[in-house]
Design goal:
10-stranded mixed beta sheet; 8 helices; alpha/beta; about 270 residues
């Protein structure tokens, strides 16, 4: 690891790229987020030729002779990374770190949030409106906390979408989640907007429908634990992969469903 430009930061936003072009595409977004969240920047690469181009970006970098899952696992504990930013390119060859399916495999065990930027997007993106969903299932505290971070540090409007449940049991569980949402936001004196989705399949994951709503600049999504997958899930593309393909070019902030996620120190 080399530090061409010293940064007095105790936590970092990671820029993850395996070629100069991908790093150039991501850097404006990474700088925007690092400045807003008051974090440092580390550029990570596992490319064989990484040493030949990482120095030119003027940020701390780590050109590692390792695989991405190992690097991702080390980010919060070794490098104090709280957010990773990486590129998804649906035209990238299979096996490339930018291919959506490979990307999700690389970050499958991530203990930090990872923001996936589409190769079709025009950087830097705006954070004026950040959206997420609530449903009848158990929700992630970290998902709500990240929404508050965007509200506090980026001035984002937070929009929370949900199905118009007619099933009484589902509606009661949703109401419990909404009460918890209100508790989190009110404790920080923050506002949000609760929005009902158009009527449809109440059993379907609401993320796909929510990301289609107007003025969604960034979307926060929970990646379910593999142990929660049912028979239908096993024989269909992973939910996160379907969302990536459907949402492009909207950036998606993914949070893996686990009990030991690292969050910001603020």
């Amino acid at each position: 690891m080399s530090t061409p430009q010293k940064q007095k930061k105790d936590q970092f936003v990671a820029l993850c790229a395996d070629c100069r072009e991908d790093a150039e595409h991501l850097l404006p977004t990474v700088k925007l987020l690092a400045n807003s969240l008051r974090k440092g920047i580390i550029l990570f690469t596992t490319a064989k030729d990484g040493d030949s181009w990482v120095e030119g970006f003027g940020v701390t970098y780590a050109a590692l002779k390792s695989d991405w899952p190992t690097v991702v696992e080390a980010m919060p504990t070794v490098f104090n990374v709280v957010l990773a930013v990486t590129l998804a390119d649906h035209k990238a060859p299979r096996g490339s770190s930018a291919h959506p399916r490979q990307l999700l495999k690389n970050f499958r065990q991530a203990k930090i949030a990872y923001l996936v930027i589409s190769a079709d997007s025009t950087p830097p993106f705006t954070t004026e409106s950040v959206a997420l969903t609530l449903d009848h299932q158990r929700e992630s505290k970290e998902k709500l906390l990240w929404a508050t971070y965007f509200k506090r540090f980026c001035g984002s409007e937070v929009v929370v979408y949900h199905h118009p449940y007619t099933d009484l049991a589902f509606r009661q569980r949703l109401d419990n989640n909404v009460r918890y949402l209100e508790k989190v936001f009110s404790s920080l004196n923050l506002t949000y907007r609760l929005q009902v989705l158009p009527a449809g399949n109440q059993f379907a994951n609401p993320d796909i429908k929510a990301v289609d709503q107007p003025d969604v600049d960034l979307f926060i999504s929970l990646v379910p634990d593999d142990r929660d997958r049912d028979l239908f899930d096993i024989f269909s593309p992973p939910q996160a992969l379907r969302l990536l393909k459907h949402a492009a070019p909207i950036p998606i902030l993914f949070l893996n469903q686990r009990d030991n996620l690292y969050i910001l120190c603020d």
